[in-house]
Each structure stands twice: as structure tokens, then as C-alpha cells.
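[Q] Does anyone have a clean C-alpha cell version of this?
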Amino acid sequence: MRLAAVTIGKSDTALGAFYRRLSSRIRKQKAATATARKIAVFFYNAIRHGMAYQDQGAAACDERHRQRVLSNLQRRAKILAYALAPIPEAMGVF
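[A] Here you go.
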């Protein structure tokens, strides 16, 4: 399973994006183990419950992750009595 996880990490799938996101934060060995576990859970659910795995691609996974991070930041800012505002693209920041 870990070999499959490392291989899938090079693909343009949701599991590949998961592996790449983890490997940037933690060691590649731990990312491979976590991805292998996720593959095993998908396999178990497919066999046990007859569920089909529908991959939505890396772009959809990255967008969901971006939205989750943004909502977490907004929640934390609200707790600290701040408000987040997007930077206008026209200003040419950076």
C-alpha cells in the first residue's frame, strides 16, 4: 500500500494532492503511510459496503482545502475580534 501511495503521489488525483500536501508539512515516509491508510480505507469501504470511489481530481481537492483553511482563518480572526478582507487584485501587491 505504501508503494501505491508514493506512486499515486505523482498523479493528478485527489489522493495525489493529499500526499503532496502532507509531504510538504511532514516527512515523505509519514505522508506515504497516511496516504496508504487512506487507500486502505477506500478499499475496505469498496469491498465491505459496495461503495464506489469517485475521484474529483487534484484541483477540486486543492479548492476544498483552500476553502477549509479560509473558513478556519475567518473563525479564528472572529474569536480575536478581527475581520479578514481580501486584497484587491488590481493593487498589484507583490
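[Q] Thanks! Anything notable?
[A] The chain has a mean pLDDT of 84.
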